[in-house]
Amino acid sequence: MVRRWRPTPCNVVQAAAAAIVVVRLLPGARRPAPLEPRPGPLGASVSVIVPARDEEHRIGPLLAALAGDPQVGEVVVVDDESADATAAVAAASGARVVPGRPLPVGWVGKPWALQQGLEAVDSDWVVTLDADVVPRPGFVGALLEAAGAGGWDVLTVGPRFVLGGAGEQLLHPAMLATIVYRFGAPGGTVNRRRALANGQCLVARRTRLIELGGFGAAAGHLTDDIALARTLAAGGAKVGFLDGSLLVEVDMHASVAEVWREWGRSLPMADATPPLQQAADLAVVWLAQALPLPRLLAGRGTPADVALVALRLGLVAATAGSYRRPAPFTWAAPIADVPAAARLTWGAVRPVRRWRGRSYPAGPPAGSAGRSG
Question: What torsion do the CA atoms of 251, 177, 227, 211 make, to the nearest 10 degrees?
Fold first, then answer.
């Protein structure tokens, strides 16, 4: 049963949240098409930098893909004090291994590893990839072409995700949807206050990135990609985010428990978002994404809930290309929206400052970032 809409405080606030979401999603109708691989010779040199800490069991497919790509001039793996055979696996795959130096005060592991990689290369362009990413041949050509055409100083792209069983297929898209409800559909130059980025795949002109301070812009942040994009954009850099689902794939997690624990750690972007903005984002997620379906099922829904559920199903269809098929349970992801919103809320209230065996002190205030000295 659908109840007649009345101007109660709850309904009015929900209507406001719905309006915000619609405004955020409307530009998605004009978003650029996914980038396509551009094989062939390049007129520039390219170094791929891979930060790696205890990645011996995941880094192999990435290195194999890079070794077979003629557009990649060199592969530099920064071994961030791994306790396993990461360095040996990387060297056996033909990569140049840079032993990571001890972590300085004020730095988080990944941006420190990336900074060391940046200092170790002298190519025209740098591409950074996480160890669990697998690129397609021609991805470098596509990144360089897009960065040049857009005039971007830094460009990141969203991948195609590889999911496991039903639990991952339900929870991961629900968590991904919380990003879209908070920031809209990515595509083009990002807003400096609300910049969205994906550190799994980044490209930049090397000299320009050094001029901008390198990865020191995100030195103390666990959500380093968001902090990097927002700090650089606030400093006048042009930062872009495009759909790279035809260029790179990533298998981020081995189980639904890992999705819950690990992605739930970074998804709130707690150390890169001011508290008031984070509270507003959480309200939008709960009111416009998580609650409309339960309200309808409980017989307490209004026409606004019907419209929001229809919008949510439209988003399911729109994000289908972000997942490698077959992934049949992603279509039922809205049933996991309440757990996803709850995990997002818990991560915002109780942010985790531990990652890969390291514990970090409380991060810098949202919107600030350390600079390399």
Answer: 70
Instruction: Provide the terminal-to-terminal Cα distance of the chain, rounded to the nearest Å.
Output: 62
Judging by DSSP bridges, how do beta strands 201-205 and 154-158 pair with one another? Answer: antiparallel
Longest dimension (CA), the chain: 67
Comparing CA positions, the residue from 141, 134, 114 lying closest to residue 67 is 134
Q: Is the dihedral of CA 295, 300, 306, 307 positive or negative?
A: negative
pLDDT at 373: 29
Taking the alpha carbons of 207, 212, 216, 219 in that order, is the dihedral positive or negative?
A: negative
Tell me the two tokens of residue 294.
Answer: 């339960």
Residue-wise over 303-335: b if at least 16 C-beta within 10 A, else e? ebbeebbebbeebbebbeebbeeebebbeebbe
301 secondary structure, DSSP code = B
Q: Rounded distance, CA 21 to CA 26, Å?
A: 9
- CA quadruple 181, 186, 190, 195: dihedral sign: positive
Contact 250, 134 (CB under 8 A): yes
Full DSSP string of 336-373? GHHHHHHHHHHHHHS---EETTEE-PPPPPTT------
Query: Residue 220, SS3?
Result: coil
Structure tokens at 92: 């056996």
Structure tokens at 163: 């999911």
List the chain domain ranges: 9-30+264-350, 46-166+184-254
Query: Which parts of the chain have pLDDT scores under 70?
Result: 363-373
- Reported residue count of the chain is 373
pLDDT in tens, 11-47: 999 999 999 999 999 988 888 999 999 999 999 999 9
Rg (CA), the chain: 21
Topology of domain 46-166+184-254, CATH: Spore Coat Polysaccharide Biosynthesis Protein SpsA; Chain A (3.90.550)
Token pair 């009111």: residue: 287
> Are the CB atoms for 55 and 79 separated by under 8 Å?
no
Closest residue by Cα to residue 140 from 60, 39, 65: 39
Residues 86/79, Cβ–Cβ less than 8 Å: yes
Give the per-residue pLDDT at 346.
97
Mutual orientation of helices 275-284 and 166-183 as an angle, nearest 10°?
120
